[in-house]
Amino acid sequence: MTVGTHSGRRHDVPPTGTAGPGRAGPRGRRFDLLPYALVTPLALFILALALVPAGVTIVQSFFRVDELDPPTRFNGLANFRDLFADGAIRSSLVNTGLYVVIGVLLSTVLGIVMAVTLQRPFRGRSILIAVLILPWALPGVVEGLVWTGIWDANIGLLNSVLTSTHLISHYQVFLGQHRFLTILAIELVQVWQMTPLSTLLILASLQNIPSELYEAAVLDGCTPWQALRRITLPLARPGIAIAMVQAVIATLNVFDQPYVLNGSADTGASLTMQTYFISFQNLDFGEGYALSLLITVATLILSLGVVKLVYRQVEF
Amino acid sequence: MPRRRPWVRTLGILFIVLWSLVPLYWTLNTSLQTDAQISAKPAHYLPPSPTLSNYHALLSGAGEIPDTIRRSSINIVVECTAATIVTVVLATLAAYAFARMRFRGRNLLFYAVLATMAFPAYTTLIPLYRIMSLFGLVNTYTGIVLVYVSGFLPLATWILHSYMTSLPIAIEEAGQVDGASRMQILWRIVLPLAWPGIVSTAIITFLFAWAQFLFPLVLSSDLSTQPLTVAIAALQGRHTVPFGLLNAAGVLALAVPAVIAVALNRFIVNGLLSGSVK
C-alpha cells in the first residue's frame, strides 16, 4: 500500500492550492491558526513515531548498541561486517532473494490472469471480486495456520490428495527439509495474500483501455491472444508496475508466513526474521539496526528498479 | 474486443474461486472434526460428524488455551477499534486542511507524510520498541495503539485527501457565503459528502490493524495486551496444541475480517484504488 506516489493523474499534484472556503475569512489577514490545529496531531505522530525512529535506525546502525552491555558507542562499519560474517544471515539473504523472485513473478502472473478474467462485465462479477479479495483481508499469521493444514506431513490436504490419486505412494514432508521446496511452499502462502491487490491494481489499468482499440483489432483480424499481447499487456504496464512494487516491498520484508510455517529453521528464515532474532533474542540492537537499514535500502532500490523497468506513462 | 472462447473465462472464474476458497474451506473443515478424525489418512474431505466441540472448548471451556484465546480476542478488538477511530479522526482533520486550506509548510508536511509510506514498516520496529519501553508503554494498549496509528495515518490521510479533493467545491463555497464557519462546513457539508471515503479508510485501517503480527509480538510480551494473532502463533509454535482447537481459533481470527471483506468489498476496492493508482 505504499505505492501512492508512483503514478497518477488527478491527485498526483497533491495540494492544488484550491482557494477553499474560509481562505478569506472574516478575520481578514490575521494569521490563520485553524489549518495548523488540524494537521498538528498528524505531524506529531509522523515526526515522533516515523521520522525520528527512521533517523535513529540510520544513525545507530553505525553504533554499538547492546542493552546487556552498555554504553553505546560509535563503531563505524563493524555492525555491517558482523552481519556479512554471519552464516545464518547469508543463508537468510539467499532465502529472501528466492522469496522475492518467486513472489513477485507469481503474484504478477496470477494478477494478470485474474485481472483479464475480470476485465469485461459479466453476471456475478462483483461477487467474484468479493471472493477474490478475501485472502488479502486476512492476517498473514492465520494464513500460515491455514496453509499448515495443506502442507502438513501428517494431516495435510496435499498429502492426502496426492496419495489418494496415487501420485505419491506415502506421505511426504514438504516443509523444512528441502530448501527450495520449503521456500516455494511458504512463498505460495504469501502470494495467496498479495495477489488480490495485484489483481485490483492491474484491473484498474485494464478498465482505462478504450474499447475502440479492441474493436479496431477485431477489424484487423487479431486473435484474442494477439490482442492480449499487443494491446492489453502494454497498456496495463502502469498497473503491473505498481503491483510489482507492492510485491517487492511485501516479499523483501516477509516475516509472518515463514515464522509460522517453518519457525526459525535455516531452510526458510527471512532477513526480517533475522532482524527480530538479532534484536529481540540476542539484544544486539546495533546489528539489528544495520540489518533493518540494509533491508530498507534494498527495498527502495529494487522498487525504483521495477518502476524504471516496467512503468510506462500511458496516454489515451 | 476479439471474442475469447467462453470456456477461457469460465476457467479463470473457477480458478479464482478455488484459489481463494479451498484453503479457507479446509480450515473450517478441520475445525469441525475431532482430533481422531483429523488424523485419518486419507483425510475427511467433509466432516464425518460435524462437531462444534472445538469451538465450545475455546469459548466456554476452562484451561490455559481457552483463557488465552478469549483474552487475546478481547485485546485484538480493543486495539483495532481504538486504532481505527483515532486514525480516521486525525486523518479526516488533516486531509481537510490539506485539501481545502492554504498554509505555510503545507506541501513540505504533505510530502513528508507520503514519504514515510515509501519505507517498509519494519524499518522503525526496533526504535519504536525502544521509545515505547522508554515511556513504559510496552505491554499497554496505549503503546500498541500509538504504533498502529502512526503506521496507518499516512495511507488514511492520502485516501481521504484524494476523496476530498474530488468533491465539488461549489457546495462548500455556498456554505461559506451563508456564513458557516470552516469547522461547520467540515461537519455539515464535507463529512456527509465524504462518508464513503471515510468508511473505506476505516475498513482498510481496521483490517490492517487486525492483521498485525510483528509489532504486537515485540510490543506485548504477555496476555494483558497480546492480540489474537500473536496468541495463535504462540500456540502453534508449541507443537503440542491439538490441531482441531488451533483451527477453531484460526476460524475465529478469520471470521471478522472475512465478513467485513465480503460484505463491504466495494468500499475496500474503492479505497485501495484511490490510495494507490488514482
Automatic annotation (TrEMBL), chain A:
Q: Where in the cell is it found?
A: Cell membrane
Please classify the protein's predominant subcellular localization into one broad category.
Answer: membrane
Q: Transport: present as a keyword of the record?
A: yes
Species the sequence originates in:
Paractinoplanes globisporus
Keywords in alphabetical order: Cell membrane, Membrane, Transmembrane, Transmembrane helix, Transport
Amino-acid biosynthesis listed as a keyword? no
Tell me its family: Belongs to the binding-protein-dependent transport system permease family.
- Source lineage: Bacteria, Bacillati, Actinomycetota, Actinomycetes, Micromonosporales
Protein's recorded name: Carbohydrate ABC transporter permease
Which domain of life does the protein's organism represent?
Bacteria
Give every ABC transmembrane type-1 domain span: 93-306
Q: Where are the transmembrane segments?
A: 33-63, 98-118, 127-150, 289-311
Tell me how this protein sits in the membrane: Multi-pass membrane protein
What Pfam families does this protein's entry cite?
A: BPD_transp_1
Automatic annotation (TrEMBL), chain B:
Stored PROSITE patterns: ABC_TM1
| Ranges in a coiled coil | none
Q: How does it sit in the membrane?
A: Multi-pass membrane protein
- Keywords for this protein: Cell membrane, Membrane, Transmembrane, Transmembrane helix, Transport
- The portions of this protein that span the membrane are 7-26, 76-96, 108-129, 141-164, 185-211, 245-269
User: Which superkingdom, per the lineage?
Assistant: Bacteria
Query: What residues does the ABC transmembrane type-1 domain cover?
Result: 73-264
Q: Which SUPFAM superfamilies match?
A: MetI-like
Subcellular localization, as worded in the UniProt entry: Cell membrane
UniProt-listed InterPro entries: BP-dep_ABC_trans_perm (IPR050901), MetI-like (IPR000515), MetI-like_sf (IPR035906)
Q: Which family does it belong to?
A: Belongs to the binding-protein-dependent transport system permease family.
Record's protein name: Carbohydrate ABC transporter permease
